[in-house]
Amino acid sequence: MTTMTKSKGAAALPLNTILAGDCIEMMNSLPENSIDLIFADPPYNLQLKGDLHRPDNSKVDAVDDAWDQFSSFAAYDRFTRDWLAAARRLLKPNGAIWVIGSYHNIFRVGASLQDAGFWILNDVVWRKSNPMPNFRGKRFTNAHETMIWASKSEGAKYTFNYEALKSLNEGVQMRSDWVLPICNGGERLKDDNGDKAHPTQKPESLLHRVLVGSTNPGDVVLDPFFGTGTTGAVAKMLGRDFIGIEREEAYRKVAQKRLDSIRKFDREALQVSASKRAEPRVPFGQLVERGMLRPGEELYSINGRFKAKVRADGTLVGKDVKGSIHQVGAAMEGAPSCNGWTYWAFKREGQIVPIDVLRQQIRAELAN
Amino acid sequence: MTTMTKSKGAAALPLNTILAGDCIEMMNSLPENSIDLIFADPPYNLQLKGDLHRPDNSKVDAVDDAWDQFSSFAAYDRFTRDWLAAARRLLKPNGAIWVIGSYHNIFRVGASLQDAGFWILNDVVWRKSNPMPNFRGKRFTNAHETMIWASKSEGAKYTFNYEALKSLNEGVQMRSDWVLPICNGGERLKDDNGDKAHPTQKPESLLHRVLVGSTNPGDVVLDPFFGTGTTGAVAKMLGRDFIGIEREEAYRKVAQKRLDSIRKFDREALQVSASKRAEPRVPFGQLVERGMLRPGEELYSINGRFKAKVRADGTLVGKDVKGSIHQVGAAMEGAPSCNGWTYWAFKREGQIVPIDVLRQQIRAELAN
DNA sequence: ACCTAAGGTGAATCTTGCT
DNA sequence: GAGCAAGATTCACCTTAGG
Fold first, then answer.
1. What's the rounded Cα separation, in Å, for the pair A197 and B54?
2. Mutate to test the interface with A, among B139, B154, B206 (most CBs of A within 10 A)
3. Residue A293: predicted pLDDT
4. Average of pLDDT values for A138-162?
5. Residue B51 CB: number of other CB atoms within 10 A?
6. Which of B108, B162, B171 is closest, CB to CB, to A324?
7. Which of B73, B149, B173 sits opposite A141 (nearest CB)?
8. Where in this chain does the record put each RAMA domain (chains A, B) (predicted)?
């Protein structure tokens, strides 16, 4: 790969390098209207109070780095406005930006994007297939992050490789929710001690989809919060040029080593997200939520011997037992286990209908 | 259903009615600190430029109603701040709010929520199983909407029926991404012409999960943008009280008709699995007092590594430690904390039995 | 070599109630 | 309100060790 190609007027772009320093200063040192795509993974401004332990008493290794600390929402907003202004100056008129965040920061980022004149094209949800659970049972599992995709301004002719994404998605149009695993296993970079080199390394599969969808080969991709360089790594594989900016020496070192080992079009490395087409699990509770069965309605065992009543939370109550469709079926039969889906039925217009029919309906919908 | 019950000081709440008028004015006419939950589906501020046609040239019936028009982001922000302030005044200290939106408005709503002092608990993604495709192939299929769940302030004791949601989800904790179909078929209300009565009617399944998860029977739920009354309908079914506010006469009429036809589920069906925390507290000493365990008897850690002796006052003595079942367990494991109830076991007839079995016996007695 | 069991871990605003 | 003690609480992976 080449450094310092693609001159734009007097200045030149330091292609395929990692710039050391503050992202706003470094961006301001680059020529305006020179970048095709920006991917930004800014600090999330998590506000953690104390330690968190798992039920087995092991401690969660949380993101408590200094770079994620801001004194107030106002301070975070100032930072956001400043780096977005610098980013917007760099973008070509038909360039675009992606920003990723969580509920801690993404609403502020999104509003600032709009205020700065960016035009939101989609918000895209990264649904994590293996998120960390909520150990205390006080909230929903925080199972997704949000990305905002925006053009430099309204009416701009941004890049969108519709057909490529459709192919990636087995021939149907790509949706705004992407199911991808978090970065772990061999892809997760380790430091010399064997600990994770960066607390929030993003999976290459995510960047693969972003770059295939919104850049063309030869485009210049800037990542102002480069970290361990996932953006650069995927850009290199896909034949795009990148520029990274990273303040922390330790991250730059790991990223450079990573980049040096990557070859363009290393197909093997791209085989991360082949989809498994297992039958989706359908919770019985969905039949209740969706009104297919009514709370208070009676279910009948397929052998006609027992009945039980549906509750609003998708559990059953029978004589002396309550619990899941499986638990109540097992208890009534005195069996160690029972597949409630094939054991229970409901009545419609005098007919006895197995509840599994309703599950099949939902699965058919999901397949579309 | 009753109207005007639950007086709060001088004022009374117009329960289970639809108030006609501007939502901010109407909210300001209600007593402060009186509402348990607010569900709000405000205008999305869609900024549609022209007509959209499907590939077969049929015209998409878009949301272009007057109530969704704002002159600028600043105007939308003003409106948002104002209704959020009125909403926050109404909430009880431990109340909570849900707001639903799309990328057009949700970032502004989220930032305003945070600025107003609400404390975000989760952002929840409603992943539509049957969204409208992107006909032009210029963007990702807009296949989700975003809900923000927030308590009135940081540290508030909001309602979260963890076990009920877990039951709804087949025994695993509920995640922040919910896959549910959009509202159509028989559930979709039609006007006298057979057209959809409201452009953005929400599915009852969505409200079912919201209300089961974050309210209890008898709670008061306010929806300041009532529309055709999905919130009221599900609240009524689930035995919650509701208050709706709606400006448009046509929507109120449809909503009232809908509400009149709905019956509440029976009481048993509304019972929901409770968390252990809600069960009565049983001191370990009671097991000794009642002779279920004898002073001097040995307890064994569940992993078989440690043992300790029961004393007459309900404390344990082990090697070098004495104290509560929790303290001794934690000390032996070198852990910051330990739930002694699940950590210790005793022997009966050669069998190892967890002490929690004895606590459950006592709780079962207390329930009778 | 292959299978099973045990252990580790991930952007987390993660308790409640009594004294 | 601060301080302390009781006690409730996890899913989908991957790696490693052991059989």
1. 49
2. B139
3. 94
4. 98
5. 9
6. B171
7. B173
8. 267-366
